[in-house]
Amino acid sequence: MTDGRPTKAVILPSYNSGPLLVRTARKALLEWPLVWVVIDGSTDSSAAEILLEARSQKGLHVLRLDHNQGKGAAVLAVMREAQRQGVTHGLVMDADGQHPASSIREFMALSNACPGAMILGVPVFGPDAPRERVFGRRIGNTCAELETLGAGVRDSLFGFRLYPIERSLEVMAQTRGGRRFDFDTEIAVRLLWAGVRPINRPVPVTYPPRSEGGVTHFRYLRDNFLLACTHLRLCLGLLPRLPRVLALKRKWRSLPETA
């Protein structure tokens, strides 16, 4: 807290999230007093609805981007704006109701204990999880294990994560990748390479049906091709960093989970 103001915020990137955006923001505000929503060029009614909600909800801030830039670009944009207002850490979660607001306080507490770390959610899938999504991420997780030498990124794609903002902006300024669906993979690997310790925690994930407003913007061929290119680039980027990543892995193995 700075002058009574929270220095950590929940971040909700949103693109055409429908009615679930306002519901998710309300649930997040019940758990944490500062929530930033970034509207990534949405064309549905969710942008107008959340802007109206922000007028009556203390602690709810909205950043609106003129056109769709992708999840990574949207999160980085809101990180820069929040940082200017004194925010040091951002907990990113999906705006479409997949992630539980009930896990917010646990992640914030872990960040308080380990302010230099990134707190990474590891999904606990229910029976509603699409099989192709569960299978596909196994391949991505294997690649991330290789790119980090098994140093602690247990899930490469899960979007419920808490990042130190200054370090995140620094590492992402060094690459033009990770601006779209590949953001979660790119930032976790690069933060680890930069010496930011990963701490993993299980988080249940649900997939709301369309009848309840559930949406997905995942495109199987397009996004898997993007991820394949990202992993190839990160594997090559690991080579000059091998000694450092090995040293970091040994260092973190000697620490307790919340040290």
What features would you describe in this structure?
- The chain is α/β, with parallel strands linked by helices.
- It has one domain: Spore Coat Polysaccharide Biosynthesis Protein SpsA, Chain A (Alpha-Beta Complex), CATH 3.90.550.
- It is built from nine helices and seven strands; from the N terminus they run βαβαβαβαβαβααβαα.
- Strands 3-2-1-4-6-5-7 form a seven-stranded mixed β-sheet, with helices on both faces.
- α5 (131-147) runs parallel beside α8.
- It is globular and about 50 Å long.
- The model has no long low-confidence stretch (mean pLDDT 91).
Topology:
Blueprint: E1 8-14, H1 20-31, E2 35-40, H2 46-56, E3 60-65, H3 71-84, E4 89-92, H4 104-113, E5 118-125, H5 131-147, E6 161-164, H6 165-172, H7 183-193, E7 198-205, H8 220-238, H9 242-253
Parallel strand pairs: 1-2, 1-4, 2-3, 5-7
Antiparallel strand pairs: 4-6, 5-6
Helix pairs in contact: 1-2, 3-6, 5-8, 6-7, 7-8
Assign an overall shape: globular
Q: State the CATH superfamily name.
A: Spore Coat Polysaccharide Biosynthesis Protein SpsA, Chain A
Order of helix and strand elements from N to C terminus: EHEHEHEHEHEHHEHH
Number of helices: 9
Features:
9 helices; Spore Coat Polysaccharide Biosynthesis Protein SpsA, Chain A; 7 strands; alpha/beta; seven-stranded mixed sheet; 259 residues
Summary of the model, kept short:
Helices cover 44% and strands 17% of the residues. It has 259 residues and is α/β, with parallel strands linked by helices.
